[in-house]
Design goal:
two-stranded antiparallel ribbon, Rhopdopsin 7-helix transmembrane proteins, mainly alpha, globular, transmembrane
């Protein structure tokens, strides 16, 4: 998106006051997102209804958010803030981890979306499809494939993802052997996964609106209410992802013309991308009724063994 702009710079990096501002502006939301994700994982263990396949997937998603926020804000941009030259000059390391995490996180989001869709559309088969061994296999595939494939791809074609001082943004490195292969691959994966997630979330929304009572009639009133709440949470997460995608793609043109070009790039790329660490977990905190209640210090009594077994099997 910004390749034609960021490649204008070729001079050696020298820290300025603006770089300190950038490091601070990215590190703070990453730190907040990091803390929120840890609280979220604790909540998944403490809230009985999240002792379930859905809770397991949420925990995995939050773990990936912890790694992502640590890599970006607590490691790289914190290095920019403190002018750690080694970190800045070797930005391709953070770039490689970031590009590995993108398909991993999207894969986990896809699992969460399909989990809610099947819970509502195929409640009788849900426990079989998402039994312990199956869900561990799904998550393993989502993690192992990008962890192995992305580094091998970047090594074989001499590709990379590097920090550019002009605009304070990570962008693809163009080489003779790589060209745009890496960019096309990553954006292709994002496009496919995003469309699949949106399709599933839209299907979940339709199920909730049109057939919610009918498809969940085999479950108790309490379980139906919980499934609807979980489904709504996933739909809201999908909406947040769409808003982020629109902002990332078009907001550069919306910023007033007198804003320096470097800051236009920063606000609509590095900053908004890392602000998503807060929103991703914030959706769970705000739109999951039981999570909100737990955070407010509401009823934290353990469910009876029967109800817990029902959600875990």
């Amino acid at each position: 998106m910004f390749a034609d702009i960021v490649y204008k710079t070729g001079h050696e990096y020298v820290q300025t006051y603006q770089d300190i501002q950038v490091g601070f502006l990215v590190s703070i939301p990453c730190l907040i997102g990091f803390i929120m994700a840890i609280i979220g994982i604790r909540g998944c263990y403490k809230i009985p209804s999240l002792n379930s396949p859905f809770g397991y997937l949420i925990r995995c998603q939050l773990c990936s958010q912890i790694v992502a926020s640590s890599n970006s804000g607590l490691f790289y941009f914190f290095g920019v803030l403190l002018d750690f030259k080694f970190i800045i000059n070797n930005s391709q390391i953070s770039g490689l981890l970031a590009t590995t995490l993108i398909p991993l996180i999207m894969g986990l989001h896809f699992l969460i979306s399909i989990n809610r869709f099947l819970a509502i559309s195929l409640p009788l088969y849900y426990n079989v499809i998402f039994k312990v061994q199956c869900r561990r296999f799904y998550v393993s595939v989502c993690c192992i494939v990008p962890i192995i494939y992305t580094p091998l791809f970047t090594w074989y074609y001499d590709c990379g993802y590097k920090f550019y001082h002009y605009g304070w943004v990570f962008s693809f490195i163009i080489s003779d052997t790589c060209g745009t292969k890496f960019e096309v691959l990553l954006r292709g994966v994002q496009s496919v996964m995003t469309n699949l997630i949106l399709l599933l979330d839209f299907g979940t929304f339709l199920m909730l609106v049109c057939f919610g009572k009918r498809v969940l009639k085999t479950k108790s009133a309490e379980v139906r209410k919980r499934e609807v709440n979980f489904g709504q949470q996933v739909v809201i997460q999908g909406i947040v992802s769409v808003i982020y995608g629109v902002f990332y793609s078009f907001a550069y043109k919306w910023i007033p013309g007198d804003t320096p070009e470097t800051w236009k790039i920063f606000w609509t790329s590095s900053f908004i991308a890392n602000l998503l660490h807060i929103f991703s977990t914030g959706v769970i905190f705000v739109f999951n009724t039981e999570f909100s209640k737990w955070l407010r210090g509401g009823d934290r009594k353990q469910s009876s063994p029967i109800s817990v077994i029902t959600t875990v099997v």
